[in-house]
Description:
alpha+beta
Amino acid sequence: MSSSGFPDPRRHAYRAGLADARLRDLVEAERYVQGEPRQVVAPSLPLRRDPRPDSLLETEALRGETVTTFAESEGWTWVQIDRDLYVGYMPSEGLSASIVEPTHRIAALRTYVFPEPDAKSAPLALLSLNALVTAEADEGKFLTLKDGGYVFARHTLPAGEAVRDAVAVAEKFLGTPYLWGGRTSIGLDCSGLVQLAFEAAGYNAPRDADMQAEELGEPINWNQGAKLYRGDLVFWEGHVGIMTSPTDLIHANAYHMAVEIEPLREAKERIKTATGSEVIGVRRLPQIAAAETL
Length: 294
């Protein structure tokens, strides 16, 4: 529930006059709708607060992800992303009613889809890390995709396979531009970086920093002298970063307008000076800590 006592509208599909049928006992609406499944077929799709191209970018869904749709009008579809339950509006043209089970996940920071198994051919699309594809066959160094095109096989992993080091995934994004609501290798925000990195390591992380501060991993007594480990998550109000060592932090931030690694001490001082905000918590994922303790 949100602070207002109503279900959090970021993760519950209800608006004026219309609601997800699963919320019938939680919210009042003139009409309740059974959602219909769709799959993202564009390289990525923006999810916006309102059905306008200039509306606030809330997050992005990557190719192969599925959504539940509730209404469509004038080229926009009101959806809930199945992965993290985020609700908003997506361009309808990037969604398909044909659901195909993914076989592989993009494991490189980004990779091209080619029209033939030849790196010299003109690319058809650019996919970012964690996008999902369905391969029909191997074609030498390439995978043949069910919906057309070829991707470099070594840039993928089987869809259910997780990597060991979430921090190493985050480090791939060094220098990536900061983009509020972004969730691709072209641009992303602080919680988007955390979500992508830990998703690659097998964790279904929520989307926003406040959600991650409540739900991802377990809290530790950081203010009682506890040592920080690689992979620990450090939270401020509305911001999050990942420890790359006991002293350094990687985060997407608007100060550098990019993903940057810096000493935690410097980040704390700068953020306190700029906003008055102190660190509000540290959380640790036990399996990550066991693997990455220095």
